Amino acid sequence: ESSPHLPPPKDVKVYSYNFHSLLRWSPVEVDRGLVLYTVHFKTGAFNQWVDMNCTHISQTECSFPWSLKKRRWTVFLRVRAELGQVTSAWVETDEFVAERDTTIGPPKVNSVTASSDSLLIRVTPPFGPEAGDFLQYHVSYWENATSTTKKEMETSNALFKIRNLKESTLYCFRVHVELMTRLSSQLLGQQSAPECSRTTIS
Prior knowledge:
Immunoglobulin-like; mainly beta; elongated; about 200 residues
């Protein structure tokens, strides 16, 4: 039975980055004794609270199990504090859908090969795509001397070329990913840090 003397966890929030998701909360402070926590989940399709492999844990976070790795599922979570036989009230999260609510990081720039009029760039996506996903790379680039004028290009290839550049000129670029899904929703990722390369002399 929940007790008014043991406060529930606060700041209960799902953190999700590149589809790796976990639940975090602030520790419950008590004068003596070790506070433990238990986490449950339920899905939009199955309205029944289920154990989440985080029962009587002392840490204040709980990673999503493999059974919850479906990106399109609607998931609800709840956590409570426990001190001996005493438990706090449950705290429930808002609904979480990974495909809508995760944060997508920047792609990794693996290599840049310069020629006199182009830069050949190879990147790695921030996460492994699933069947039905479509990744679009948005590239913005600019001449370093005139960084006010940016040009944009889009490509679905992780190996792409920025063309029609001036020779022996320093160019900078940034890349971010847009994930298109079967639900036709779109998730925009974070931009990579600017990288600069000088074109060669023909």
